[in-house]
Design goal:
Layout: H1 26-33, H2 37-46, H3 63-79, H4 83-108
């Protein structure tokens, strides 16, 4: 049986899972966020990211930190939020997620 001209093959997605144990360099996180090195350094200086290592060449970021960086970069680029505002927004979003997790666990009990 031949597929009809209107049918489409299912889309295939590929990617990888970033875990907390994943270690990314400064160059890796810049590529993942499509951000300049200076912006990632500012995120570290503002306290939004806390890499392991003393100097930018030695920094290692976790998969969780890359998610924070992506959100902060999007807030700054798309909404014009400054770094302090991005830090506050990230904190509030994380608190909301923690509260949602508590609600889910209470609902399951």
């Amino acid at each position: 049986m031949t597929p009809s001209p209107n049918s489409q093959a299912p889309a295939q997605l590929s990617g990888f899972i970033l875990e907390e144990q994943t270690e990314l360099t400064l160059a890796d996180i810049c590529r993942a966020c499509a951000a300049q090195t200076e912006l990632i350094i500012e995120l570290v200086e503002e306290g939004l990211l806390a890499p392991a290592g003393q100097a930018p060449d030695d920094w290692r970021f976790t998969g969780l930190q890359i998610q924070r960086a992506k959100v902060a970069v999007r807030l700054q680029r798309d909404l014009g939020v400054n770094l302090a505002g991005a830090a506050l927004a990230l904190q509030l979003m994380e608190e909301m997620e923690a509260l949602r997790a508590q609600l889910r666990s209470l609902s399951a009990a």
